[in-house]
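Hi P.,

Sorry for the delay on this. The queue was packed all week, but I finally got your sequence through. Input first:
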Amino acid sequence: MATLYKLNKEHGKNTVRLGMPRKENAWELRCAHRSPRYTTKWDELPVVRIE
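Then the structure:
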């Protein structure tokens, strides 16, 4: 935490933060449509095909 405080003091408030998503992130909308079981139910996992 001391390092985080020092970096923010040197480079400006909220330059470095803990790993928490921001509300304005574009990916937030995509993850909202994801199934709650996306890692446990095989038929809900995305399929990637290379042709």
